[in-house]
């Protein structure tokens, strides 16, 4: 029963397949040999009888001249010195500020650094109802000497630039604004009760209080922006 162990049909099919592959390989080999034997149509023609270019040397010299010129320009750009000197600018700026400070009669207000004022602590106050007129008279002269400066800052109010100074004696808040061009000085005194309200409203930031300063004709007021529109007159 040899036919049970050997599949003759499968072997015959494989043999035919191998013969077909061998035939295809022979065809490919023949085509490749033909291609190799053909002359290359893309290769440049080397004919010694062709005339040589007449301006080859001239074009080569021109290319060398352009290359040297580009290298010269690159070197000049790399070695050029800067025209502006930042260190000299800073020195001139410091000299101008010193001259301006010497020429001004009042403190210079321009170019002041805008920063949040240092947290100010409201001096503990006594009871408002319990303060008597006699105690105020005794401590009146002493409070003038014990006033504490809370803020000194330049701010723009309306169309003018003012030097704002805020001070307190622990109760009232004194605000002075000086404008250098017209030499105008405005004063504003906020009573103790209103001072406490402003301190709580702006969380002790006197710079924020100064930003609410407004001009009402020739008076200095504080615009709190509240619903009632309440303002402090000068």
Describe this structure in words.
Helix content is 43%, strand content 19%. It has a domain at 146-225. With 234 residues, it is an alpha+beta fold. The longest helix has 30 residues, at 8-37.
Q: What profile does the largest beta sheet have?
A: 4 strands, antiparallel
What is the count of helical runs? 6
In total, how many beta strands? 7
Dominant shape? elongated
Secondary-structure blueprint:
Elements: H1 8-37, H2 56-79, H3 86-103, H4 133-145, E1 148-157, E2 160-168, E3 173-179, E4 184-190, H5 192-201, H6 206-211, E5 213-216, E6 219-223, E7 231-232
Antiparallel strand pairs: 1-2, 2-3, 3-4, 5-6, 6-7
Keywords for this entry:
single chain, about 230 residues, alpha+beta, four-stranded antiparallel sheet, three-stranded antiparallel sheet, disordered C terminus
Brief description of this entry?
The termini are far apart. The protein has helices at 8-37, 56-79, 86-103, 133-145, 192-201, 206-211, and strands at 148-157, 160-168, 173-179, 184-190, 213-216, 219-223, 231-232. With 234 residues, it is α+β, with helices and mostly antiparallel strands.
């Amino acid at each position: 029963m040899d036919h049970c162990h050997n599949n003759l049909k499968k072997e015959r099919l494989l043999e035919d397949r191998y013969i077909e592959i061998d035939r295809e390989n022979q065809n490919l080999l023949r085509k490749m040999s033909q291609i190799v034997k053909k002359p290359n149509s893309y290769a440049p023609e080397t004919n010694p009888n062709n005339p040589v270019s007449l301006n080859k040397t001239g074009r080569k010299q021109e290319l060398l001249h352009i290359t040297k010129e580009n290298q010269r320009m690159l070197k000049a750009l790399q070695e050029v010195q800067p025209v502006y000197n930042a260190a000299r600018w800073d020195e001139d700026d410091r000299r101008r500020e010193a001259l301006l400070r010497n020429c001004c009669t009042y403190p210079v207000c321009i170019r002041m650094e805008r920063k949040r004022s240092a947290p100010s602590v409201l001096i503990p106050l006594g009871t408002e109802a319990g303060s008597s007129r006699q105690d105020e008279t005794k401590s009146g002269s002493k409070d003038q000497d014990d006033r504490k400066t809370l803020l000194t800052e330049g701010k723009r109010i309306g169309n003018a630039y003012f030097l704002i100074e805020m001070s307190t004696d622990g109760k009232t808040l004194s605000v002075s604004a000086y404008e250098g061009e017209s030499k105008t000085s405005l004063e504003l005194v906020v009573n103790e009760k209103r001072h406490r309200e402003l301190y709580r409203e702006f969380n002790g930031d006197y710079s924020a209080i100064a930003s609410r300063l407004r001009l009402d004709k020739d008076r200095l007021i504080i615009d709190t922006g509240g619903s009632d529109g309440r303002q402090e007159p000068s």
